[in-house]
Amino acid sequence: MITTPEERQAVMQAADLERPLKGVEDCLTALGVALHRQDAQAVDRVAADLHTALAAAVDHFTRAARNGGVPAVLRQRLALASGQVAAQREALARATASLDRAMDVLMPRPGVVATSLYTATGGNDRAPGNGSLLA
Fold it and tell me: What gap in Å lies between CA 129 and CA 113, rounded to an integer?
């Protein structure tokens, strides 16, 4: 039972933070589905939505931190969401690198005779500047 004004404020603050955090979590779920389905249009759309949701969540959490703090449970959920963003970014980076290697095999650069993509020691034998990754 809520009895003090501080407890009421904490409950209201948690409710205010729940909405933007839930938006981030929902966007992460939708992005995972779009990536799994390999739906480029959905990935673009959901990535933009995620960007907006993350900005809103950061704004809400920053204000909450200035005005009394963020409940531990919500802080943990935000950290988990941040980890999911990092994991999806890493998965996209790996997919991009894999695609770049496949493109080098299928469409070699003019004037370059490629016998392999890696050196005998396992290093990357590709010329610098191939591919790009925007995170």
Answer: 17
Among 9-13, 21-25, 95-99, 123-127, which is the least confidently predicted range?
A: 123-127
Distance between CA 56 and CA 26 in Å, rounded?
14
CA distances from 82 to 39, 73, 101, 122 (A): 23, 14, 29, 32
Distance CA 97, CA 31 (A): 20
In eight-state DSSP terms, residue 112 is -
Rounded CA separation 98/95 (Å): 5
Rounded to the nearest 5 percent, the helix, strand and coil shares of the chain are 70, 0, 30
For the chain, the structural domain boundaries read: 5-106
Question: pTM to 2 decimals?
Answer: 0.65
User: 40 with 96: CB under 8 angstroms?
Assistant: no
